Automatic annotation (TrEMBL):
InterPro entries: Sig_transdc_resp-reg_C-effctor, TF_LuxR_autoind-bd_dom, TF_LuxR_autoind-bd_dom_sf, Tscrpt_reg_LuxR_C, WH-like_DNA-bd_sf
GO molecular function, one term: DNA binding
Source species taxonomy: Bacteria, Pseudomonadati, Pseudomonadota, Alphaproteobacteria, Hyphomicrobiales
Name by which UniProt lists this protein: LuxR family transcriptional regulator
Record keyword Transcription present: yes
Keyword Transcription regulation attached: yes
Sorted UniProt keywords: DNA-binding, Transcription, Transcription regulation
Origin superkingdom: Bacteria
Domain HTH luxR-type: 186-251
Amino acid sequence: MLETLERVERSLAEAATLDGKIDYAVALVSALGFTSVVYDYSPVATSHEGELLTPSHLSLRNVPDDMRHLWCDRGYYQRDPVQHMALRSTLPFIWSYRRNRDETALAGYLSDEHQPVARYLRDADLTCGVTVPIHRTRGDMATFTAIRRGARKDFVRDARHHLADFGLVGQLFHEHAYPMLSEKEKRAAPVRLTPRERECLLYSAEGLTAKEIAHRLGRAVPTVTLHINTAIRKLGARNRLHAVILANHYRLLEA
């Protein structure tokens, strides 16, 4: 590593803002020949059907201006094969979209579904990079990616020498970046429940009936039933038990 672990930690801690921490990360990977950095965070990585969810936070450095719009608003994030691989990996990995089929994690994986992403990155000359998947104990997920614009033929061989360093840098960066995320970013979910709907599902998760919940809340049984049924509809659940399971998946029942 170009800098000691203690130096990296100290520099990340000294950066007072998330932007400052990202700027330091860019400087760190630039010393290894990388030009761009992408950092994203998702409090819930996938829907209950297994589809990737758009991250609640996305930081980009030295990439085209339209990349955020494409990844967050046009569904490119869900088509991004690197993100799919990160979902299933706990180790940092090298990737390449170059047509010579570098021997990387993407070799043999790309399909027609991924072509919009592949074409965009080839056109932007952002074809080669290293991604560090970061899986947290509560099921939330982040990725830290460094990209080398204009990568030479020896990119894969060179990147292998720094793969362990990237793994450490990515994990350290996230540990210092996570406290800087807003509470909304840490709790974002594709479904919004009102406090009363959430409360009724919490009591349902404890096994209480609608009558028992009504007694706890000092509300009429039809009112409680309405809140529960509304939550069921919002979650697309089949019944109350299914709603509790889905709400738990989306971390809507956490304190």
